[in-house]
Structure formats: structure tokens, C-alpha cells
Amino acid sequence: MKRLMGVINLDAEQDLLGELTYFRCGAAVPFGGRYRLIDFVLSNMVHAQISEIAVFTRRKYRSLMDHLGNGKAWDLDHVKGGLFILPPDWNDPTDISKGELQHFHNNRDFFARGQADHVLITGSQHVSTVDFEEVFTQHLNTNADVTVVYQHNEKMVTDTPFSKKLTIDKTGHVRDLTNDQKNPNYYMNMYIIKKDLLLELVDSCIARGKSFLFEEGIIPRADKLKIGSYAYNGYLAVIDSLSAYYQQSMKLLSDQHFEELFLSKKPLMTKIKNEPPTVYKRGSNATNSLIANGCVIEGKVSNSILFRGVKVERGAVIENSVIMQRCVIKKGTVLKNVVLDKDITLTPNKTLIGADKQPYVVAKRKVI
């Protein structure tokens, strides 16, 4: 879509997933058996034919860069446009910008060279199947300066104070951004804005010592700008805490949630890894679980998610757990309500048990 370019802004996102973000940013955290959190919003952008996409990242981005590469897995390895990973490498001694505005200021060339006249800005913590083509069509048809994506959800509960709610008037225009937990209009950290207006607001915010574009540049001008709203009513998982990560992972074992995320829209794209099918050896038992390719199952697995290359030896038991790539669970070991990061080896006859809503988490590359 030549009129729309994309920005996945990770700079303002907090590393809220404990051990899972010790060595990586939140966008690179594995989710759903074979994906990373960034795959969902990136795939949604590609399906909307957005061919110029920048990723603003500031810290712990090595794993993210390894995953994204040159964007080939998302068909973004173009001669013109494509995927741009833009870490903080700035050498302008006159730069006075702060916070996320540093990215917009110091990567101004990305916007200047882009052919699009509108910009889609998102984060990575909202796993969804938003149709950005539909959002953009509404944005153009209503001639809005900004169109904000939200979900009206009376039941949504989040574990952190970082969740934001939108105050929307009867005409569908956004008037304010609040932390009011009783407000059901959940802001999904996604909006489309006219490119010229974006650059104007960036300059204005920097001149006034501001740090955040949406909260300090757009919302305070709600009485002057036409800020429209797009009500999204599809699948939404907010990954803003370890508890939320675990609970949303477990929900994928439900046929309804699995189909809503993976089967209701266009295919989800991720980095391709060629591995053999999973082997279930005689005496193994696997029920109600998502098990990726390359695993070897000799023990018992139930109500769990296993990523690629996990080995479960005979006599081992895994229940209600998330086991990431290349973990080895030795014989006699019991895991319940556990999240294991990548490359962990559990020696024989160990027992790890977490709570139903607060799993026991082990950071990657450990031997226990």
C-alpha cells in the first residue's frame, strides 16, 4: 500500500516479562509455539500491503535482529523500501530530543524518503489480527488527522499500570487518554497519522521538551485535531506481564482462541526453520498440547506448549507449561505451571511447580 508506511515503535515499551526479557526485548519473546511477539503486528502490516516498515528499538535488540534478518520471511527484502531495523546510533551534537521522539527525529530520513503520505505506528505487545487496510480505508473516508485503534471490552483486566483507555465522544472522536480501569475502551497502541502532521508534531514536542508523541503531542491537541477511532472486535491478547504471557499462552490450547488467532485471517509469517517432524516414541503420551516440529517425546505432555526441538525423556511429566526451543527434560522430572526459556536442561528427577496464575519461570541457557 503505497500511501501507508509502517513504524513498529519498541522504544516506549517496557520490559515487563521478567526472566523472558533478561536477554531480549519484549518484541523478540517467543509465543505460540513457533513465533515471536513482533510477528503478529508485522504480518498484519504485510497483509495490508505495507512495503516500507521501520522498527524503532533501543536496547537488547540482538535477538530481534537475528530473528528479523533482512525481512525475507515477510517478503520485505526489497530493492526499494522493505524492512528497516533502526537502533539508536546517533551522532548529532545539536540534538535535544528525548525519549521515543529521538527515534522520530534522528530517523527523519526514513519518512522523507518514503513514498507514503500516511504512517501507521504500533507497538508489539498487542497480539491481534487487525486488518490495517480496513483501518486505513476508514481513516481516508473520514478525512481524519489521526485514527486510533481500540477495543471496547468490559471484561479486559491488565496486570500493569501501563494500560491506557480512550475517552471517545458520541461522534467517535477521541477526546482523552486515561488510566481509568472502569473505562472499557482499551487503547491498543496503534494509530494512523498523516505524515506531514507527524513530522510537525515531532518538531513541536521536541521544542517543548516532551518525550512521547501520542500522549504528549497528539492527545493534548484533541480539541484541534480530528482524532477518529476504529473499533476492533477480533482476537486480542495483551502481553504486558509474565502472568499475562502465561495465561494468554494457555488460552491458545482452546480451539476457539487458536482458531481466532491463527485460522480466521491470512497466514501468520515468521522466520523459517527447517526441522523434521516431531517424534512420539512408544510409551509417550501427549494430550491437548501445541507441539512444534523437531521435538522428541518419550514422556507425558498435557495442556502445554512446546517449541521446536524440545526433548522429553521417558518418565518426565509436563503439565500446564510453556517450554521453549531446544530444552531438554530428563527422565523423572516433573513440571507443572512452568515457563522455561530457550536451551535449558533439567537433570533427572527434578520437580518445578508454579502457581496457576503465576508460573515458575527459568531464564534461558541454564542447567538445573
From TrEMBL:
InterPro entries the UniProt entry points to: ADP-Glc_PPase, GlgDAde_trans, GlmU/GlgC-like_hexapep, NTP_transferase_dom, Nucleotide-diphossugar_trans, Trimer_LpxA-like_sf
A biological process term (GO) from this entry: glycogen biosynthetic process
Any Pfam family matching the protein: Hexapep_GlmU
Nucleotidyl transferase domain residues: 20-150
Domain Glucose-1-phosphate adenylyltransferase/Bifunctional protein GlmU-like C-terminal hexapeptide per the UniProt entry, residue ranges: 281-358
Keywords assigned by UniProt, alphabetized: Glycogen biosynthesis
Keyword match RNA-binding: no
Keyword Magnesium: no
Single GO term (MF): glucose-1-phosphate adenylyltransferase activity
Record NCBIfam families: glgD
PANTHER family xrefs: GLUCOSE-1-PHOSPHATE ADENYLYLTRANSFERASE-RELATED, GLYCOGEN BIOSYNTHESIS PROTEIN GLGD
Stated family: Belongs to the bacterial/plant glucose-1-phosphate adenylyltransferase family.
Name listed for the protein in its UniProt record: Required for glycogen biosynthesis
Native species: Alkalihalophilus pseudofirmus (strain ATCC BAA-2126 / JCM 17055 / OF4) (Bacillus pseudofirmus)
Gene responsible for this protein: glgD
